[in-house]
From TrEMBL:
NCBIfam families: ROK_glcA_fam (TIGR00744). This is Glucokinase. InterPro entries: ATPase_NBD (IPR043129), ROK (IPR000600), ROK_cs (IPR049874), ROK_glcA (IPR004654). Belongs to the ROK (NagC/XylR) family. CDD domains: ASKHA_NBD_ROK_BsGLK-like. Its EC number is 2.7.1.2. It comes from the Bacteria.
Length: 324
């Protein structure tokens, strides 16, 4: 069994990351496929299963090398049934039988978990958590996810919806609509999508000018990376947007820390690649809003595993839950 592999899957709104991982947490092979939202997402799991089987064949391996498949998916999970209750960015109807679908397609044991929880588990197992047993992981990507680990275990809540940090209301009045149906969620500000929205709103104001505006005028679109890069170069609009993001993120993280007092809060996801320019500002606001004993004991850190956190955490599900 120690020579077997685990298939770890990180299901995202745009791409799906897949990896074969050893029992010791070494990534042996990894690749990506597009996430197909068409027809209410009916091809998502079959595409993943097909890709896994094709990769095994290409590597000259049989399916017996796999101990199981773990998956992180964006949304709350019913842990008894393996059903994803709500997946607003995937096209699935509510209560999609995710674990059963994977097991049926691959004839392998499957375990499913919220994607941000998987990232938290990955960082705890192999990354910035460095073995910390009390950890909060916040993923800043297309959306904003969160995973809370207390005493080494994921906090799931009564309905599997704990850790939905992206849906903390940070603008109770006048906030932008969120895919969840609420308005003013942290996700509408601190995600890549939110950053772009804030920047476009600023650039649509009269007399907008600067590096970011030039990019927008040339290509008629911008990315969160454009905003971050322009902020590094001192572009006033980009700096203003990033400061707003840092304010809301720092406030939310301080409130989380005031409640949980974790050893570490780890920031991951594509937006976290901004690095120091984002982390330093978030730290400043965190320090302002955190209760002093919390401020002095809870540390903010950037994730170290990058895009590998999710697949590693998904693999850990199989190692921990099905093998022990």
């Amino acid at each position: 069994m120690s020579n077997q592999w685990i298939a770890g899957v990180d299901l995202g709104g745009t791409t799906t990351k897949i990896a074969f991982i050893s029992m010791d947490g070494d990534i042996l092979h990894k690749w990506e496929i597009p996430t197909d939202h068409s027809n209410e997402g009916q091809y998502i799991t079959s595409n993943i299963a097909t890709s896994i089987m094709e990769k095994l064949e290409k590597l000259g391996q049989s399916k017996t090398v796999l101990a199981g498949v773990g998956m992180g998916a964006p949304g709350p999970i019913d842990y008894e049934t393996g059903v994803i209750l709500n997946a607003v960015n995937l096209g699935w109807r509510d209560n999609f039988p995710l674990r059963d679908s994977l097991e049926s397609l691959l004839s392998l044991p499957a375990a499913v978990e919220n994607d941000a929880n998987c990232a938290a588990l990955g960082e705890m197992w192999q990354g910035a958590g460095n073995g910390a047993k009390n950890l909060v992981c916040v993923t800043l990507g297309t959306g904003v996810g969160g995973g809370v680990i207390a005493n080494g275990n994921i906090v799931t809540g009564v309905n599997g919806a704990a850790g939905e940090i992206g849906h903390i209301t940070t603008l109770p009045v006048g906030g932008a609509p969120c895919n969840c149906g609420k308005t003013g969620c942290l996700e509408t500000i601190a995600s890549a999508t939110g950053i772009v929205r804030l920047a476009v709103e600023e650039m649509n104001k009269p007399n907008s000018k600067g590096e970011l505006t030039d990019i927008f005028n040339r290509s008629k679109k911008i990315t969160a990376k454009d905003v971050i890069d322009s902020a590094r170069n001192g572009d006033p609009i980009a700096v203003k947007v990033l400061n707003e993001v840092a304010f809301h993120l720092g406030l939310a993280l301080a409130n989380i820390a005031n409640t949980l007092n974790p050893e570490k809060i780890v920031l991951g996801g594509g937006v976290s690649k901004a690095g120091k320019i984002l982390l330093d500002s978030v730290q400043d606001y965190f320090d302002k809003f955190a209760f002093p004993p919390v401020k002095n004991s809870t540390k903010l850190a950037l994730a170290t595993l990058g895009n590998d956190a999710g697949v590693l955490g998904a693999a850990w599900l199989i190692k921990n839950k099905l093998i022990g």
